[in-house]
Amino acid sequence: MLKKWVLFISSRxxxxxxxxxxxxxxxxxxxxxxxxxxALISVISVMNGFQMGFIEDIxxxxxxxxxxxxxxxxxxxxxxxxxxxxxxxxxxETKTLVSSPYRIExxxxxxxxxxxxxxxxxxxxxxxxxRGDYEPDIPKTVVIGRLLALRLGLNIGDSISIVALNxxxxxxxxxxxxxxxxxxxxxxGYDDFDLSMMIMSVDDxxxxxxxxxxxxxxxxxxxxxxxxxxAEIVGLENLAEENITSWREYNKAFFSALRLEKSxxxxxxxxxxxxxxxxxxxxxxxxxxxxxxxxGILRAIGSTPAQIRQIFVMDGLMIGLGGGIAxxxxxxxxxxxxxxxxxxxxxxxxxxxxxxxxxxxxxxxxIFVFAVGFCxxxxxxxxxxxxxxxxxEVLRYE
Length: 398
Fold this sequence. Notes:
alpha+beta; 6-stranded mixed β-barrel; 2 domains; 16 helices
């Protein structure tokens, strides 16, 4: 059980050295922990903003939460009523070459139903058509990405030529091209889509590639319940498991790269805690050497080595808690105002309107616990020297 006098002595050791009028190593260590926590929180939150933005673009626009392929007509209404499914939308995809008077570019054309806005509102919300609109009622119209339009030198109202790479167009010696009118431009925020994707109606995509396969995109209320939803769809429609692709499998390599990037960032920034923990270890050992007389007196009046070790372990805990709490508050303040700070410092890149930020409470808690744990462990290891001090040897020369 922790004694009150242990806390009292521990707090005294952390305070400034009044005799030399120097800041104690404990306060400097707490400041180091605060800086480390601040750096980790701000960097990881900005990284989360970018990564989660990419993930949301991919799963809402391209991979969906579940993809159903190589299937015949499904009972969409039955699937829609499965618990946890928010939407299901049929679509077609085909690879094409698109050309303008200036250049030719490869692109993926996605054909969606006329009522796609009602079937899958999240798709158009994430697509972000910022100029013009999707006009499925007008034949031979297309919506293209902003970067693709810039590369082709086109704008709304211009004509674009499209030829499918895997359809009937290349069955002839000379492929047949179809001309479409651009009615809208989108800017999803994910450059791969903005540079290589086009949206048109189902009738239009079948006119350039009649052999393209019908697929279904399923969205869930919680994308992490994809396995349960896939199992229910398989049981309901008697599908093979190979016909359903989860968003995890569809983007496995990309998501693994994001996870590795984030883990490496945690490790690199976590080295700050390692450096500070060495400082705590050395300062604790030095304090023990300086306080041998006091430790000898405490041993002489009946204190056990374990109780004396608690003094220095509590030092580490107080340093960790103080620095960790200060770092969390400062880190959250910096993160929530990162765009204003960068504007004042004139460090914001010209192509970034706003720095995306996503705060994950579990990660904040993990950083805090990690910082405190490092401090306590360092103090615990350093305090083992206390057991080597005997009151007889210390007091013999006093």
